[in-house]
Amino acid sequence: MRAYLPTLGLLTMLLCVNCQKPAETTPTPDKAALEAERIAAILESPDRQSWQMPEKVIEELKLKNGDVVADIGAGTGYFARRIAEKVAPKGQSIGFDINPAMVDYMQRDAATREMKQNYRAELIQSRNPVLQKDYYDLIFFCNTYQHIENRVAYFKTLSQSLKRKGRIVIIDFSKLEKADEESGEVPANLVDKNTVKREFKKAGFRLKRDLTFLPSQFFLEFTRG
Predict the structure, then answer these.
(1) Buried-exposed string 1-26: b where 16+ CB fall within 10 A, e elsewhere
(2) Ranges for the Methyltransferase domain (predicted)?
(3) How much is the pLDDT for 126?
(4) Which of 43, 107, 113, 207 has the most C-beta neighbours closer than 10 Å?
């Protein structure tokens, strides 16, 4: 296994926790909080720093004070809180997740960090991303893409929430060679970046940047065509 990749267990969890389907029965508050802490231990694992390169990612997002950013599938707010720091004091970072426990986690985290003025968390529907129209400078997805259903329609809808010069950034794991997949190095449901490009083109977007600085992931930036 390549040294720069996260462990298989961590990778598998990263690919599922942010957009997992809610349980049919609502857990008790105590159980929900414990589950959020369990997920947080995975998403906030110290080894993520080396392969996710969050500081470099934030630098390449080219954020500025006053920007309004949506982080969809935000999980613990790993990037949402970093984004909040960059767009402060006038900007807004909103972490969206379909899991109420993760939304609660982000809200508590924002309060602890005294970032409630420009960082908040909200629930989002898994299949119908209805966000405020013409509102966002950036919509950000990290380790989430393969969980989105009917992606062309999804991003056509989402485009309405972008400002005129707004952007969408997709960061996700590269699809490895078949031999690597068969070895069990990564799950087989990853979406290669050329598929992402084709789907965004069908959704009416134009590729603006294709960055390759991440050791095991791609970074694609799109604007409305």
Answers:
(1) eeeebbeeebbebbbbbbbbeeeeee
(2) 64-204
(3) 82
(4) 43
- Please state the domain count of the chain: 1
The DSSP secondary-structure symbol of 22 reads: P
Q: 79 φ, ψ to 5°?
A: -95, -30
Q: What is the 8-class DSSP label of residue 54?
A: H
- 3 in a structural domain: no
In a domain, residue 88? The reply is yes
CATH number assigned to the domain comprising residue 190: 3.40.50.150
DSSP code at position 183? T
Partners of 141 in beta bridges? 72, 170
In a domain, 124, yes or no: yes
**How far is residue 45's CA from residue 47's CA, in Å, rounded to a whole number?**
6
Pairing type for strands 205-211 and 217-224 reads antiparallel
Percent of the chain with pLDDT strictly greater than 70:
81
Q: What is the pLDDT of residues 31-46, one digit of tens each?
A: 777 877 888 888 899 9
The enclosing H or E element of 173 equals strand 162-173
3-state secondary structure of 219: strand
pTM: 0.84
Domain membership of residue 39 (yes or no) is: yes
How confident is the model over 139-182, as pLDDT tens digits?
A: 999 999 999 999 999 999 999 999 999 999 999 998 654 444 44
- Quick count: other Cβ atoms within 10 Å of Cβ 69? 27
User: What torsion, rounded to 10 degrees, do the Cα atoms 26, 124, 211, 173 define?
Assistant: 20
Assigned token pair, 123 = 């629930």
Compute and round to an integer the Cα radius of gyration of the chain: 17
